[in-house]
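lol ok so funny story. i was supposed to be doing the assay writeup but got distracted and ended up predicting the structure for this chain instead. priorities right. anyway since i did it might as well share w the group, maybe its usefull for someone
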Amino acid sequence: QVQLVESGGGSVQVGGSLRLSCKASRSTFSNYGMGWFRQASGKEREFVAAVSWDAIRTYYADSVKGRFTISRDNAKVTVYLQMNSLKPEDTAVYYCAAETGGLGTPQSKYDYWGQGTQVTVSS
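and the output, tada:
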């Protein structure tokens, strides 16, 4: 079992920045690829970004490419999501998740999920 705890959410104005963190409960964190997902009110949860276990490869949804950056620090068992140039449509609950299937693993195949952190972007 791996427990994931997100933090760093909050309210920000359009064009602002936030950095989300997701801390894992186990040192085996480095065995897992990590992803960030989000769910806006009334919508399905969607993929945002993913990073391979070794932090070498990353993958982004088109909607956040160039604005968001995913990274990880295996020594700190933490994955980050730096979000810049935020837009109202980025408002959602953001979840981190862990997988062993490799980059490109579908959402349904992620093994562990955090509880989520709310991000609200207002104009």
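The mean pLDDT is 95. The longest strand covers residues 92-99.
back to the writeup now i swear
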